[in-house]
Design a protein that fits this description.
three-stranded antiparallel beta sheet; single chain; 153 residues; globular; mainly alpha; Lysozyme
Length: 153
């Protein structure tokens, strides 16, 4: 009985902490409804490509830094803590006015709001290395091929 309880608890803990991996078509639809294609000069296909190369669609990813200033990257868009989110306990006053831990859950609403703010800056989608290194200047339509979403661009 004790082993069964331990196994059940372990299963519960694993299921609670397991990251959500979105599939590209579900993500494309979410992004279309969020109107991400009106930010940063990119289409929905461009955004899906960006997210794949940043996080492999993993909503709970915490990665290393990708900029010389430092910080860590959080969530499906890999938003950097040096500029955009607060890792501390004080009220966040960084670019997105959000705690980084809010970016590593399965609800990507706040991630999208922050990504819009980032993409609205002068760099647009170029703010992400995943974009510049893997998606920029390419035909990214394959990222939404056979998805039930009308995509322009």
């Amino acid at each position: 009985m004790k082993n069964r309880d331990t196994a059940a608890l372990l299963f519960l803990l694993l299921s609670v902490t397991e990251a959500k991996f979105f599939n590209r078509c579900d993500l494309a639809l979410i992004m279309k409804y969020a109107r991400l294609d009106t930010f940063g000069g990119g289409s929905i296909a461009d955004w899906v490509c960006l997210v794949y190369h940043e996080s492999r669609f993993n909503s709970r990813l915490v990665g290393g830094t990708t900029n010389p200033a430092g910080g860590r990257n959080f969530g499906i868009f890999q938003i950097n803590s040096y500029w955009w989110c607060s890792r501390g306990r004080s009220k966040p006053n960084f670019g997105c006015s959000i705690y980084c831990k809010s970016l590593i859950d399965d609800d990507i609403t706040d991630d999208i709001i922050c990504a819009k703010r980032i993409a609205s800056g002068s760099a647009g989608l170029n703010a992400w290395l995943g974009w510049t290194d893997n998606c920029k200047g390419r035909d990214n339509s394959r990222w939404v091929r056979n998805c039930d979403v009308l995509v322009t661009g």
